[in-house]
Amino acid sequence: MLFLVGLMTAAVVGMIVLGIALELGRGRLAAPPRLLRGAVAANLGLFALALAGVVFLGVGEVAAQTPATAGAAEVSIGKGLALIGVGIPTALASIAAAIALGPVGSSALAVLAEKPEMFGRTLVYLGLAEGIAIYGLVVSILMLGRI
């Protein structure tokens, strides 16, 4: 199980390093885009397989475990996986909001450069895009109440 967690950590660190390398070398790509696409796809696939392995192995360990009566401060693997599951809606909704805010924000700035009186409308559009993240946060709070 620790091997799979280490594999997931390596995949995340690899994606971060790739993003930083692409950002720093913006004009001069060392590798062709086709190769980069393949590397990113392989990295994401490796991450997804490791995550599935952790989930399935974690469920097996939780089912085989005897109930802990030692202390309430301990967090079992099952509760830890449940807490990770609670955070997933917020994470995915925040990513979706960021993807939505990119084009909306740049378009809003372009409109404001031409017509400053459209400021109120652009704030409404930005707020609608940001609402996606708030919905994810609400879902996570509701799920946290069930644990």
Structure description:
This protein is mainly alpha-helical and 147 residues long. The protein has two domains: 1-64; 72-147, F1F0 ATP synthase subunit C (F1FO ATP Synthase). It is built from four helices and no strands. Helix 1 packs antiparallel against helix 2 (33-64) and helix 3 (77-114) runs antiparallel to helix 4. It is flat and about 65 Å long. It starts with a helix and ends with a helix. The model has no long low-confidence stretch (mean pLDDT 80).
Distance between the termini: 24 Å
Low-confidence stretches: none
Shape: flat
The CATH superfamily of the largest domain is F1F0 ATP synthase subunit C
- Overall helicity: over 70%
Order of helices and strands: HHHH
Q: Over all CA atoms, what is the radius of gyration?
A: 21 Å
Biggest sheet descriptor: none
Mean pLDDT: 80
Question: What is the fold's blueprint, element by element?
Answer:
Layout (H helix, E strand, L loop, with lengths): L1 H23 L8 H32 L12 H38 L4 H26 L3
Helix pairs in contact: 1-2, 3-4
Task: Please describe the structure with a list of short key phrases separated by commas or semicolons.
single chain, 147 residues, mainly alpha, F1FO ATP Synthase, 2 domains, 81% helix
Give a quick summary of the entry.
The protein is mostly helical and 147 residues long.
